[in-house]
Each structure stands twice: as structure tokens, then as C-alpha cells.
Amino acid sequence: MDNPRLMVFAAHTDDAQYGAGATIVRYAKNGSEVMIVNMTDSETGGAPSREIRRQRMLEAGAEAAETLGAKCHFMHYGGDTLDNCLIKQLQVARVIREFRPDIIITHWLKDMHHDHVSTALLTHYGVDFAIKENPKEGIWNLDWHENAVVLKQELEELKKFPPLPTPRIYAMEEYTTLQTLDFPAAAYLSFTAEEFESKIESLMIFNRIAFNDTGKEEDEVFKIVRTPEGRIVDAQDGLVGPAIHLGRIRGYIVGSYYAEAFAESRFLGFLGGIKAKDSL
Fold first, then answer.
1. Which of 11, 66, 149, 228 is deepest in the core (most CB within 10 A)?
2. Cα–Cα distance for residue pair 97/247, rounded to 1 Å
3. pTM of structure
4. Structural domain contains residue 223
């Protein structure tokens, strides 16, 4: 496939950039259409108020996606406790059918963050509904459901777009506490310094727009270390520094300077999305 369509489902507006930023740059540069879908507006934590935080994260997320060469879509789900429910599964399925990706990247199902796990589940169940000829068959006793009216409306919306072939699904690696200790990396992409620098630039957008209330320059606040040419090689923050270190660790494993690692999803096999073949 010359230019596979890539879709990245992220719980928060900075997750796709951290877990798959350089991969997004690579695919976009090679001519693929890339869509980042943010489940929440990342409105919790930091900033003078919840609404200010929300607006800053939405602005940063949109600008960061553009920096990577991707389109950006917001589902606008609440960010305190993102839940995996049928209504959201059908809404995710509709977004998938509309974009028609060949490859999907999302969070790891065993991630330590609740919103990340919910996003992974919503993505996988969304794919299962998106590939079905009759999605209604995936809902047991629809008429008995307490949200039957809303579910039927979502099913009608889903029917506006035809089903698609099962996309390949991968899990991205995040900086959540302890995740990398058990992350089953199965696929690696290595990158040039320029490709990885675009990822770091997209993450710095969040430091500039959303995470710096001091009035000082970002380089001072986050103790950014740059080469004489201006390339960022380290930082003491919760985003750029960890991304650089993880990129170097994964790069060392595959013999390059920077890399990103992904786990292959097997979850769809339990949903009927994987079919038996006569031969490999």
C-alpha cells in the first residue's frame, strides 16, 4: 500500500504527539493522510481554571497536530473519568468509517492511566462496529437498553458510511508511570534527527501554550538543553525530556539514534475481527 491512511486515537491532546509523533511525521511526509482523534479536551489539572486549561489544551493540540502534518478531531468527552460505553463506541465507529484508516494507533490496553485504557477499549470496540455490515448485531437486546433511543440514533448516523476492511491496530508507548517496564514492543520505527525534532517541536507547543504560567521563557522554566544549532536534546519537564529519553532508549535497541516502539493488537480476535486463513 503506497500511502496508507493513519488514524491515531489519543485520550488527551498531548498523547498522540508523545507516543507516535515521529511516526505521524513520517507518514505525513510520505503522502499519507493522518488524523489525530482526541477523546477528551484535557481540561483537568493546572491553569487558573478548568475552562482556561481546556482552551489552552485545545489550541495546543490543534497547533501540534498541524506541526506534525496531521488533521485533528476532538470528540469532546469529559476528561475526569472517561468511560467505555456503547454510545461512545458507536460514535467512535462513525469517525472511523468516515476517515477509513488502513492503520490505527491507540493506547495500550494495559496502560496505567484510566483514560488511556478507556480510549484503547473505545477504539477497539469502535473498529468492531465499523467493520460490521450490520452493527446492530453487536448490541444485545437493543430495545431493552436504557439508552435505546440514543443508540438507535447513533446506529442511523453510523449507517451513513459504509463498513471498511479491518485496519491494522497498534498500541503506542506513553510516559505513564511503570508502563514501559512491561510494554510488549513488537514493531519499531527509527527516525532521522529532523523527524524526531518535529515531534519535540510539537510537544514544546504544549509547554508554551498550556503549561507555562510563569511569564518566563520556556527554555528557562523547563530547563531546555539545546545544541549550538538550536536542537533540543534534553529538558526537565514532564513531556519533552521523557520523550527524548524514551526515543533514545528505543533507538539504541534497533541501532539508531531515535525510534518509537509499538505493540501489535490482538484484541480484535475476541471480537470476530480476525478471520482464519488457509495459509500465511
1. 11
2. 32
3. 0.92
4. no
